[in-house]
Here is the input.
Amino acid sequence: MPGRARVVVAVLATVTLSSSIGAALTAPALDYEYFKARVEPVFLTKRPDHARCYVCHAESNNAFHLERLAPGASVWTEEQSRKNFETVSQLVNPGDAATSRLLLHPLAPEDGGDVFHSGGRQFASKRDPAWRTLAAWVNGATLASKKP
Here is the structure.
């Protein structure tokens, strides 16, 4: 590789690395309290013509696995919520709802979602209040921030 080409490659690699580091440094932290109060209820909510997220994802062995509720329980324990938070946090790109699997997989393809989701289209569009709640969390919402 000629010297000039090596320099160009080195500069491009440095710029790419710097951009990645900058994005990581500016990405918002995912707020556990917001997750517990606003996001987890989305997973338990029955939407017309769809099963609750919980019904499939408590039984799944895929990346989006929710903790199983105790018999008769309607909410998770603190320990279970923390496990759910850790699992679900792996499915998002903090600060970038538009590329987060948690938001794209159940979203209708007509509004930018994945083509296939065996649970159907939980969210017909990004205007859905539950989708917006998930997006707000991914984008750094806290209970004090008063975002949806």
